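[retry 2/3] Lactate utilization protein C: previous attempt timed out, resubmitting with same input.
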Amino acid sequence: MGAREEILARIGRAVAGADEVDVPRRYRTTQQVDDLVGLFAERVDDYRAIVHVLPASEVPGRIEESVAGRRMIVPDGFERDGGWGDLDTADGVITGCAVAVAETGTIVLDHGPGQGTRAQTLVPDYHLCVVRADQIVAGAPEAIARLDPSRPLTWISGPSATSDIELNRVEGVHGPRTLEVIIST
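[retry 2/3] Lactate utilization protein C: success.
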């Protein structure tokens, strides 16, 4: 018997015959946030992303300005005519999202229509994501409740970044170096 098994056997003997205890779980599943859009924009900005909060009527013009001169991947189902980049030649990708979390500034892709594949959202150096105000929830429990656990999920909290042992920040290691978010109100 190894050390692990010995420890587990001791624990088993110690609790043998003990009463079952019902441990109440009082997890917070909702929270009140007065300004979801404002909090989400603030948190996304904290991650060094570029953030625009615009009326829906101004979103197409902002998209055109943001992608001007870039070869972009436009996934099937995104509400924009035509894509003109592929994984080998694209400068960036433009997507929607499944849900966004105000508390953490996190965008969640489930790679449904208009969200592209994981490769399309992780390989290019630039990601432009359009988030509708009605897709923003206060916290992670609410976001999880909206998601289908059988779909592939990508959780994005700012541009890709990592730090080495000396805490030198390096961006673009595991995904796009630049994240631009348009919040459509």
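[retry 2/3] Lactate utilization protein C: The chain has one domain: 25-184.
[retry 2/3] clearing retry counter.
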